[in-house]
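Hey,

The postdoc asked me to send both predictions to you directly instead of through the lab channel. I've kept everything plain text so nothing gets mangled by the mail client. Protein one:
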Amino acid sequence: MFSWPPAITMSASPAMIALAASMTAFRPEPQTLLIVMPGTAAGSPALINA
């Protein structure tokens, strides 16, 4: 048997829908957070290659 209550459907205002869409549009994609950038141009290179 299922023990949780059924989902409640709530209608959102058009302004809230637009706000949620714009917040989602400006969120970075997960793939962009994993981009590897080259090391620093100034300073010394690492002593051991990782």
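Protein two:
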Amino acid sequence: MSLKRGLSLLALLVMMIVMPGMALAYEFEYFHNCPTCGFRGNILDGEEPTCTHSGFAKYRCLNCGSYDIKLKALGHDWREWRTVRHKTCTTDGLRRRTCRRCGAEEEEVIRASHNWSRWQVLISPTCTEYGLKTHTCYDCGTTRDVEVKPLGHKWTRWSTLRKATCLEEGERVRTCTRCSFETHEAVAKLKHNWSSWHTGVKAGCTTEGTRERTCSRCHSVETKATEALGHRWGSAMTTTRATCTEPGVKTKTCSRCKEKLEIETTPLGHSFGKWTTTTKATCEAEGEQTRTCVRCKEKEHRATEPTGHRFGKWRVVTKATCEADGERVRTCGRCRKEEHEAIPAFGHSYGDWRTDAEGVAYRSCRTCGAKQTLAEFREQEALWQAAETETEPAAEAPAPETETALDIEG
């Protein structure tokens, strides 16, 4: 502790030697507790605060280094006001003061004002009329008159002339103690002092009821309607059973008024069983099926499609030849009906042309051995051409084959 105290005294001595002006002009704290660590520090440098500007002091903490402390502005140190120009009743005056520290000056206007005497009442005001008062300036003799507002009535308390009831308004009066003027005022009707609501007429299922209450002061009666209760229906009871095609009826009864309500129920609809065959369908004729309702025994019919023939394989009855048609037949496996069908003649299958001993050209069918001469062939060919000409008139008939065109074996 003695070492720290010695260092502090040494720092103080140095500051007084280096900054004597600051030490005399402003009262700095040469020792200050550090705001960071709390250790005591000594002043190093500073700037004095003035009346209008702040200053600062720089300290050195022996523990954590140097830091600054801001010093607030001092503010002016004013002398007493000094009158520069005296005011009159109509012109402003002026006064001034000076700062002891910085010499700054401040001026203030002294507003012109009369030196009035006390008010003197010329005309006294009444409750409803204005009065008049006057006063005079001691300095310039100016006189000013001012109206005095009416005093207003000074009322007594209200006194009742007629009491208010639940049905009629009342009346009260009050009197001014200065001018004896009276004012009358209506008193609002009293509110009814109603009893509790009680039932007047009971409501029915379809008719409204009433509720009533009575005023204990004027015995007035207030009535209001209550809604009809509505029916309280019981469970629906079947009175007429529904059938497959006819609706039924169910009835509900109100437990209060015994009124009945009939409700129509929908028909049940048929409940048919399975389809059963009454007439079997054949190969060509329709069949019939029937089903029966389990409740009313009504029957419903429907047709079934013919089954159609179930034919077997074709069987040749007459074989076809080169010139004659044949015939084949097949039989239905159900109804034994036979179906016949022609087998077209397949025509001759001629071989090559030949010449007999008499020099006549012919050819023979390979199937049946029938012979066809050249003359027969030409005749047949002419018939073919004529038939084609009739069907196709625009087409030209082909040139008939000449004898030289035929390949005839000798």
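Summary for protein two, as requested: Confidence is low (pLDDT under 50) at residues 15-25, 394-407.

Thanks,
C.
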